[in-house]
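Residues determine shape. Take a concrete instance:
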Amino acid sequence: MEAITDVESYLFIISRNHIFNMLKKVARETAFKNEISHNTVAVNTTDFSLQDEQYMALLKKVINKLQPQNTSRRYYFLFQIQ
């Protein structure tokens, strides 16, 4: 290893390299965050809640149309979905 003859130049080079490394790191992190945000799918929970309510209403309607001999089965299904 060589002896440092010009401390000011040495510190300048070290600082410059450190700044370049930090800029590269920030650029990589920004690119990564942008990639993640583009790949993330927005979920509308209101639509899912409304769809669940509609499916439950349809299921209850079908269960209520079961034959009278299936009364115990109807109560079982109604109990399961509540």
